[in-house]
């Protein structure tokens, strides 16, 4: 998909997202969106498509690292629960509690018993959140292994993306099928009436983002909510120019 | 400045920023950058210019809201201190402890005695951080009142930016001169050898960003640090395509 | 009950508690004990009876204040979940999530719908914790209103206890029956196989403490766990006396 | 010193401590007390003597464990700063930032350069707190090595105290002199006009506690502050006895 097409299609959705955020604030809603999927599928880009025009004090992205030893000894959901939104907030999880059913299962960081118990508990945990009034959305971003390989190669070659190439990514290359299987098991046991999964094809990332954002907006109730009227009288004097005393600005970067 | 010129000039700096972040991680450095300046000067955009290609798990933006009652009763620097980086991290403060010398002073949220004590303590506090090995950079972004008015008006008219228009912004419109005075006093008392201020002209925001990023990179020591070699063998089999069982992806967003 | 009888009876239990804490640490168990009950029943004293000989770095008492506005907007269990123990820890809750079924219900701080939903969710929430391996114990401390009145009066008259007399205590005096009713409803809906309640008569607080501690110890599995052998050789020199240079100790408090 | 003498002498001080806490709350003061000293000197007991009759929601004891790796990479004072009191609170530090000048120095957990920088920064850091209005008190508890040996031996032999015997304690036995030297250096460089040290002889722990509490109370300004009048009308009905339905209390612990 071309950049321009993408921007043209996204632009009106951006306005809807901003209106949605206003509605969330004014009505005290809480929104949680989980972004899961293949390595390199494009979770980060999808999150940015949702959040980039929103107030960063209202819309938080949560991307937790490896649990500390203390966290490993806690109730599994504890460290995620600490990041759930308060009234008026939107929280986007860049990977989430589902780590246990994905990377932890496939890479052997959790035992079968732990994974199994997790899959039993998830519907219960999520039901509690939904009953509490949280609007919960779960997206899984898919891509063919060919795309994954291309994107890993790009991370290797592009100095701007090199940091994205983690040892886990590399170790996971050969486990595409195991991840598929793990995903199917996860869907089988955690796709519920109260917290359904939505799968989005991210073989074309721009199209995937548009698909996801459109779907998210469509799942929300009517979020229209006019902004408050603001009185903006004339300044009533000549605007001042900056005048520096103690210290001067540095030289501007020269335009070629 | 044209978008294209801007992108062309920024591109090589992005690579330098990414290399710098690698150096920070590998050598365990800590970087703190404060972004202060006029309302609407472009702090948010400048922060994004620095952070957008960096690992969000390494480079954190700290944009604190109004202090809670408990925080108001604490040592003034306490809530900021909690966000200082650990080894390997970069923290960008979108407004900072200097609130007390700016908005709190001008809008009367702090007493003269509090502002005065703050200005006395800042050089001492910052010296402790710098002696502890933190690399601290302080930027103040300036713009003429005419620009400020244009940008406030744009926030009013552009639905994507309306949320940026805070009551404080409006109340501050008439206090351009008071902010100038407050800035001069702040510079006089907190522009130190160990933690100097850098003023950047943000009348043209794109040029301002280039100026700021270039300056930041130039202030750092040699941050060259080659990425680790990564072995990326051939996959050794035909790549798999996604095959969905339990649930199918939703329809792609239609390209016009 | 006489102080002396009490001490004599408690002494061996103290050793059992210390042994239990060692077992918790060595085996990585997690223990949660909830202390609920009438105002003035003696929750604080019961908690001290359990914790006073334990390592304060291992055994934590959690006594949360009024929720902040941000906390009020969150999932109800969120702020409690943040205090659950990690492996090797013991957490004693001085009042707990059951606030919603007690004081919040009786004093009208929560709506009927909130209380009702809470009572539905508690068994589910507690089941998750228990399945996760947490050893959960719930005590409710009862006392006749006559005792309650005496103890409130004592708080009023004893300068050491005056701070314990909260406005809520006073407002709750007339609602003894409503608290009884609320407790019955709570027991009916949250006394489960996996997280049963234990009621203890605290009309005599010393006896109540003995009863509670004995019951808690009896509910635990065999916690015998010998302390590690420690080699404690002779010092091999004359012990030094303190010798002060820069500063001398202050005068000792004179013994009459 | 006899238990009885001790209790008799402490009793009136307890009332003064409670009155002091009321004054702290009503006037929004902040109090910080650091407890440092020899291993086994009796820091824990001294802290309990101060805190035992105070509201645990107002008076907090801070006993930090070994720093995590993230904390080790931070500004040294950062993790302590997070525990400083807000208005109306009292914080008792069971060991404090002075760890760096004591155990960390003697046991080699910090480099000479780190210790040296710490000793330079402490007076500056503490001055900031004091200027901010925090009432800061620093106690160092001394005891002869003979006492220390006895108490270590007691920890070994008494099952209730065994957990107190840390490997660090044992390793430190032979370093009594090194600790003395470290203390002298610490006093030389951190006993300032604005944050003076007070040394207390804890060869007799009960007497030491009385000495310390008396000194603390004497250092405070006039803290008289009458409690608010409370209206405590007659109940106006026969008090209810507990009547249990769903569940009965368990059997009382039998008094012999």
UniProtKB/TrEMBL annotation, chains A, B, C, D:
It comes from the Bacteria. Signal peptide: none annotated. It holds the Pfam family PPK2. InterPro entries: P-loop_NTPase, Polyphosphate_phosphotransfera, PPK2-related, PPK2_PA0141. GO terms for biological process: phosphorus metabolic process. The keyword Nucleus does not apply. Belongs to the polyphosphate kinase 2 (PPK2) family. Class I subfamily. PANTHER family: ADP-POLYPHOSPHATE PHOSPHOTRANSFERASE, POLYPHOSPHATE:AMP PHOSPHOTRANSFERASE-RELATED. This is ADP/GDP-polyphosphate phosphotransferase. The lineage of its organism: Bacteria, Pseudomonadati, Pseudomonadota, Alphaproteobacteria, Sphingomonadales. The gene is ppk2.
